[in-house]
C-alpha cells in the first residue's frame, strides 16, 4: 500500500495536470477533428436550375416511355382462361393408361422350377452328407411341393417375374367366372378379415 502512495506522489510532483472537464469533452473534440480532416467544408452536391419545376414532367415522360416499350411478344389468346379447364379434362379423357396383364400361373411355374431344383439339390447334398443311402429318386416331387406349400421355400410374384422376364404371358382365364362367384359365396369373408 505504501508503494502505491509513493508512486502517486511522484506523479503529482511532475507538474502535469489535466484541465478540468478534459475527459468529458476529449471524445467530441477528436471526432470533430477527424470530421474536418476527412470531409470538406462544402457538400459538393448542387441542384440544377429549375430542377423542382421540371421534375414532375420528366418523371411522367419516362413512365410513358416505359409503358410503350414494355411489349414482351407473348399474347394470351381470347377466352383462354375460360376454356382451359375443358381442354385439360378432354386431354385427360383421351389418354387412357394401358394396363399390362400378367398371367401369374406361368410366372409361378417359371419361379418354382428353379427353386424346386435348388431345394432338391440342397436336400441331396444334406442327405448325402449324412452318409445314408438316400438317392434323388427317393425324394418325391410331392415332398418338394409340400416344402413350397408349407412356406419352407419363400416365393413372391416379384422374384418370379425377375427370373422369367423374357417369357410372354397369355391372357387366358384360369378360372371361370361362375367358379369364382361360387367360391366367394361359400367363403366367410368376415371370419377371414377377423383372423388377419
Produce a short descriptive summary.
The chain is 62% helix and 0% strand. It contains nine helices and no strands. Helix 5 packs across helix 7.
Notable traits:
62% helix, 9 helices, mainly alpha, 196 residues
Summarize the helix and strand pattern as letters: HHHHHHHHH
Low-pLDDT segments: none
Number of helices: 9
Shape: elongated
Q: SS-based structural class?
A: mainly alpha
User: What integer value in Å does the Rg equal?
Assistant: 49 Å
Strand-residue proportion: under 5%
Terminal CA distance reads 92 Å
- What is the strand tally? 0
User: Roughly what is the average pLDDT, rounded to an integer?
Assistant: 76
Query: Which percent bin holds the helix content?
Result: 55-70%
The largest sheet is:
none
Task: Please describe what this structure looks like.
This protein has 196 residues and is mostly helical. It has a domain of 92 residues. Helix content is 62%, strand content 0%. It contains nine helices and no strands. The protein is elongated and about 120 Å long. The model has no long low-confidence stretch (mean pLDDT 76).
Map the helices and strands.
Layout: H1 2-13, H2 22-38, H3 51-69, H4 80-94, H5 104-129, H6 141-149, H7 157-163, H8 177-186, H9 189-195
Amino acid at each position: 500500500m505504501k508503494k502505491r502512495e509513493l508512486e502517486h506522489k511522484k506523479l503529482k510532483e511532475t507538474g502535469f495536470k489535466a484541465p478540468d472537464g478534459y475527459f468529458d469533452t476529449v471524445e467530441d473534440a477528436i471526432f470533430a477533428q477527424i470530421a474536418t480532416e476527412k470531409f470538406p467544408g462544402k457538400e459538393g452536391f448542387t441542384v440544377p436550375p429549375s430542377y423542382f419545376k421540371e421534375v414532375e414532367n420528366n418523371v411522367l415522360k419516362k413512365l410513358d416511355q416505359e409503358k410503350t416499350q414494355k411489349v414482351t411478344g407473348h399474347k394470351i389468346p381470347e377466352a383462354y382462361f375460360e376454356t382451359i379447364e375443358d381442354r385439360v379434362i378432354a386431354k385427360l379423357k383421351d389418354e387412357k393408361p394401358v394396363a399390362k396383364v400378367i398371367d401369374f400361373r406361368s410366372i409361378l411355374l417359371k419361379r418354382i422350377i428353379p427353386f424346386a431344383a435348388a431345394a432338391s439339390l440342397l436336400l441331396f447334398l444334406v442327405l448325402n452328407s449324412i452318409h445314408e443311402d438316400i438317392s434323388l429318386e427317393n425324394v418325391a416331387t410331392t415332398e418338394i411341393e409340400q416344402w413350397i406349400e408349407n412356406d419352407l421355400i419363400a416365393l413372391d410374384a416379384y422374384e418370379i417375374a425377375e427370373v422369367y422376364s423374357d417369357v410372354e404371358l397369355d391372357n387366358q382365364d384360369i378360372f371361370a367366372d361362375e367358379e369364382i362367384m361360387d367360391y366367394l359365396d361359400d367363403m366367410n369373408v368376415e371370419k377371414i378379415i377377423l383372423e388377419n
